[in-house]
Every structure is written in structure tokens, then in C-alpha cells.
Amino acid sequence: MYKIEEPIYFSLLIIVPAMIVVFLLVLWWKKRTQRKFSDLNLLKKLAPNSSTFKSVLKLVFLLLGITFLIIALVNPKMGTKLKTVKREGVDIVFALDVSKSMLAEDIAPNRLEKAKQIISKTIDQLGSDRVGIIIYAGNAYPLLPITTDHAAANMFLQNANPDMVSSQGTDINGALELAKTYYNNDEQTNRFLVIISDGEDHQEETKQVAKNLANEGIKIYTIGVGLEKGAPIPMRVNGSMIGYKKDNKGETVITKRMPDVLQGIADAADGNYIDGNVTERPVKVIADVIANAEKSEFETKQFSDYKDQFQWFLAIGLLFLLIDIFLFDKKTKWLRKVDLFNEEKTNK
């Protein structure tokens, strides 16, 4: 297992293509200028030791040296063993509504992306807490099992979209039932479920299901995204908008946020409803709740004893730079005798 300590230095790799472009431009300028003053065959006789190949070879070694030095700056580390460690935290599961109505653009960029922002920023505020993600529309599906790997959670989250579910609708009940299977630690004293939705297409028995979860010790928070006045649902093909979703009568469907539904679910579970149209508010509320919650100890496996590997890349990079310094861009005597590239024949 490996990790990158300073990934920001990868941006320096832009130097490599930039130097290639500059080299080609200089080479073109030199050839063009030489042709103005002399015939090409005469130039080869006046400068028999000139070698384009050696110039290219020097550039290759220089670029390799720079590339390896940049990798050394990034400082890749290698994990040498997997060990079990004890950590303290809570279990928090996010249930994300990915139904078509979440594509409405009444809040920028749209409801679904706003929901993702809330989850991602909340995850960034967590410490050693475990996190899981459920997506649901007409059915509920596990997107990410509960884990301490917050980077993986953010990666899976970004890929969530309506095409990942087989049927449309808003099956909050399914998400609630699936959430129960996520909490695999019976001794965990604090278990949280955060539902993010516009609240449309709910089922009447949802409140009872939420109440049952609360009786099992799961604290439920609901976050509403979208405007109550509603907005049409854009339809896109290959990223291009082709119109808005219409009903059986050919009229444009207007999807509205239903705060009363989400408030009712939260009330039934003795939780809280939060307006999610401004990202910072739900993030702060959830982060404060998690920070003040009693932490439980749990075991997790992770790679440890990460060792720096930059020295290998540094040594290789310096080696290539030394070769570049001692490699002349003119033909050497022994190379002229060997004439590997038949340059002598071409010069005649």
C-alpha cells in the first residue's frame, strides 16, 4: 500500500512538455537560420561534429532527471504491514436521494450536486468516525459500506447519479431499512443516519419506519434541498439538454421540495430537519452534533509503518542530470568511428 505525501508538486510536471516545445522551437529556428547563410551540405562539412541525435539524447536525460526529482518532491511512501488499531468515533450513514427530481436546477448547480457538496464537506469535518453511503430512488442500494476511509467515501460519492438505480421514485423506506444493516457494531452508542432529499414521492408508513429506527438507537437527521415553489426537471442526452420532463398529458412536470415530509420523518425519530439550500448550515449542524457525541472505541485495519521512498527517485534523478552534464552535444571520436547511425554516409 502506498500514499502520496505532497501531491501538489505533480503540477511541476508541466515543465516537461514545456521544455520539449521550447527545444523543438529552438531546433526549428536554428535550422531555418542556418539555411539563410549556407547550403546544408556545406554546413555539414564546416561542422562535422554537429549531432542532432546527441542534442535529443541530452534533452531526454535532462527531462528524465527533472521528472524523477519532481517525484522525489511528491515523496511517495510505502506501507509495509497491515495492523489492527483502535480508534474512537461514531457511525454515520448518509442516505442520498438520486431520483430524477434531484436534477432540478432551482438551486445551483442542481439539487443532487448540492446534496453531494453537503455530504462531502461534512465528511471532511469528521475525525476517526466511520461513514457509509446509501443511494435511493425507486429502490435503495448500498453505495459504500461503513468505513473509516473518507477519501474513498468522497470518491464513490462523486459518481452517484440517477442512472445507478433501476427504478425511479423516492423509496425513503427502503433507505431506512437498508441503513439498519450498516451498523455492524452493537456496542456503538452513537449511530447517525442523515437523509438528504427533496422529500417528494414519500410513503405514508415512512414515519413509523423512522420511529422504529429511533427506538433502536439510531438518530435521524433530514436535510431538504430545492425550493418549495418548484422547478422543471431537465432532460439531457450526452450532456446536451433536450427539454424538460413531461407528464402523460404533455405538460411540464414541476418538482417541489416537501419540507413537511422531511420534518415529519425527523420528528418521528426525535431528530432534526435542516434546510440544505445553503451548504454551510447543514455541514455545521451535523459536524457539531458528531463532535459533541460520545465516542465509542472500535477496531479497524490499516496499513502502517509508511516509509519514505523519495531517496530512490532523488538518486535516479541526480544520476540522469549527471549524465546530461557529461554528455556532449557533439559527436565523440569513438562514436564517429563506430558510426552507429550512419551519419558519416549521410554527410557525404
Task: Provide mean pLDDT, rounded.
Answer: 83
Radius of gyration: 31 Å
Number of domains: 2
User: Shape, please?
Assistant: elongated
Domain VWFA: 91-226
Pfam families: BatA, VWA
Transmembrane segments: 6-29, 55-74, 310-328
Keywords: Cell membrane, Membrane, Transmembrane, Transmembrane helix
Describe the structure.
The strands form four sheets. A six-stranded mixed β-sheet has the order 5-4-3-6-7-12, with helices on both faces. It has a three-stranded antiparallel β-sheet with strand order 1-2-13. It is elongated and about 95 Å long. It folds into two domains: 111 residues, no CATH class; 204 residues, von Willebrand factor, type A domain (Rossmann fold, 3-Layer(aba) Sandwich). It is 42% helix and 24% strand. The model has no long low-confidence stretch (mean pLDDT 83). Helix 1 packs antiparallel against helix 3. The protein is α/β, with parallel strands linked by helices and 348 residues long.
Q: Summary?
A:
By secondary structure, this protein is α/β, with parallel strands linked by helices. It has 12 helices and 13 strands.
